[in-house]
Amino acid sequence: MTPDEVARLAQQCESETVEFKATTGQRHEAAKTLSAMLNGQGGRVIFGDVGALGGTFPTLGCRLVAVDGTELAEEFRDDALFEANISASLRRAMAFCGEHLHHRVRIGGDLHAEVGTEIPLAVMREALANAFGHRDYAIAGMIQVRIFTDRLEVHSPGQLHFGLKPADLYADHSSHPWNPNILGCMFRNGTVEQLGSGTVRMVRMCADAGLGRPAFTATSASVTCSVPRRGHWLAPGGAGVALSGLEASVLTALAGSPTTRRQLADDLEVSIAELRVALRQLRDLGLIRVEGHGRGAHWVLDNR
User: Fold this and answer.
1) Which pTM was predicted?
2) Which of 166, 14, 200 has the alpha carbon at shortest distance from 90?
3) What is the CATH architecture of 243-301?
4) 3-state class of 147 per DSSP?
5) pLDDT in tens, 177-209
6) Backbone angles phi, psi at 17, to 5 degrees
């Protein structure tokens, strides 16, 4: 390539066929990228100085923010701008989450301590991989990772495509990658384990970890995945809600499976009258709904 051709290519963003590498010290990462490209449409890998690339590529990297509160207007504990390729950006975002989320220790059956983050690493990886893999690279803007006191948010530029709606992400759905070559590379280098089921796995892993259900929202400008931190629950729109102990127990039970009011009362060991008040409050918050009539009526989490 001539210097002019390199200069023109450098004005583009990373894409399915263009990958930027900061130094030849990233040989292992570069080799994985090249190997992934072999089974796609091929492409170019550009090595350069990160300082020289900074600010040149509007879709390169991610913005990482930790907030002391539940709104962006509150004080920031940390605010970092990271400009790098997808793999490096995803690793840095994972590390940032690990730095600012609480860690919990569990003693296993062999009396060895097992340390983990309050939000499972696999859930964070799925949220970030979806954002980097499905974002619209034709739109300027970085992936945004925001850690609040009640939730983790991952914002991805672009909108949902192929007729998908946020409610569809809670159930099995067909895989229609907006960036098939990028997702293919991420799948082949192990960043993505299985195409088309990431959001469903996130919901299941959150329930298994005793967390509230993630919230998926979308506008014409971005798609947001919000994951509640331990002890918190989110409304369908992604905002945190204050709950009583009984209300939180009801949501935890329904995260496992839909059930009847009588069965809930028996499982939670509360009276029907107490449960009726909690169910009404959760329904008014848009968190649950009833399906069916009469004896066949059962309560489910509301993902509409």
Assistant:
1) 0.72
2) 14
3) Orthogonal Bundle (1.10)
4) strand
5) 788 888 888 887 777 766 666 888 898 888 888
6) -120, 5
